[in-house]
Write a structure and sequence with these properties.
Distance between the termini: 82 Å
Shape: elongated
Strand content: 5-15%
Mean pLDDT: 82
Structural class: mainly alpha
Helix content: 40-55%
Number of domains: 2
Largest sheet: 2 strands, antiparallel
Number of strands: 2
Length: 133
């Protein structure tokens, strides 16, 4: 039956027929809600049981994050690129490109246009490498 046909049929039904349909739908929905609730309660009981036993394989990965070792410290990375219109906005060249850089690249600029010149010298002096071969 199409939606249009169903709508016309509903409009032609009298009050008693509509009320019986309403009661039947309420009964069906109530049964489905009860079944869904029981299923969710079973899943919750399984999770609680696994949590009490300490069964890490049965628990979601998000819950076990607290048990992990803390992340190791990474060294500070110096910025390699700078926004010329706002020099306080910099980017190390790692991770997602900042909005200002994406916009500039889309407008035709090259990545090298934003390179901070003295970064290369600082990096080489730290590693003991020279720029000249």
């Amino acid at each position: 039956m199409h939606k249009l046909d169903l709508k016309l049929d509903l409009e032609t039904m009298d009050f008693d027929e509509l009320w019986l349909l309403h009661e039947e739908l309420t009964k069906i929905l109530s049964e489905k809600i009860t079944a869904e609730k029981l299923e969710l309660e079973k899943r919750l009981a399984q999770l609680n049981l696994a949590n009490q036993r300490g069964d890490a394989a049965a628990l979601p990965a998000a819950d076990s994050r607290a048990d992990r070792l803390p992340r190791r410290k990474y060294p500070k990375v110096l910025p390699k690129y700078c926004n010329p219109s706002a020099p306080e906005e910099t980017w190390s060249g790692r991770g997602k490109q900042p909005r200002w850089l994406v916009a500039a690249l889309q407008s035709g600029h090259k990545l090298e246009d934003f390179k901070i010149e003295n970064t290369q010298d600082a990096t080489n002096s730290k590693t003991g490498r020279s720029q000249h071969s």
